[in-house]
Amino acid sequence: MTKATSSVTPSASADTEGPSAAQLIDAKIAGLDDWRGTTLARVRRIIQQADPAVVETVKWRGVPVWEHDGILCTGEIYARAVKMTFAKGAALADPAGLFNASLTGTTRRAIDLHEGETINATALKALIRAAVAANVAATTAKTPPARRRTATKTPADTRAAAPTSRPRTPRR
Q: Residue 169 burial by CB count (10 A; 0-12/13-18/19+): exposed, middle or buried?
């Protein structure tokens, strides 16, 4: 039985061959010589400004993905829209009302960006930061707490230190 290979390409890969995820995303943006390339490049800059620790990957046959303790969002390209799908968007507060697609889902939410629309960078950065916080909280909740060391017992706390009337026999 053979193991399936992943289509994930890490952004910094010292031990893998081929272009990095960042290079693949650069090529995707360069290959889009219309408003969609400009929009995807702007979205990418906003994400990187909102979370400098974000990791870029490429999945699902070339879809840019931004991750921090899990998937934050994807950047899908369609003929009439650049779609940012937030993996845990339904759990995020959206006071600016950026989400305008996939609103009935129980997990994901999306933002469809169309030609000529401006991006509210401040609101999008806040949404990215909220997604990071949600992922970090979920990761922290899954991590078992560190084992605490118990206090060292003093001789007065142990039975062996208490005087006995008869000697104990060793266990075998």
A: exposed
The candidate with the shortest Cα–Cα distance to 131, out of 111, 154, 161, is 111
Instruction: Record the pTM.
Output: 0.71
The torsion region of residue 61 among left (phi > 0), alpha (psi -120 to 50) and beta comes to left
3-state secondary structure of 130: helix
Tell me: the pLDDT tens digits for 98-141? 999 888 888 999 999 999 999 999 999 999 999 999 999 888 87
Encode pLDDT of 44-68 as tens digits.
999 999 999 999 999 988 899 999 9
Instruction: Give the C-alpha separation, 135 to 117, whole Å.
Output: 29
Kindly state the tokens that stand for 10: 């890490």
Q: Report the C-alpha gap between 73 and 64 in whole angstroms.
A: 9
- CB contact at 8 A, 64 and 44: yes
Q: 């026999």: which residue's tokens?
A: 169
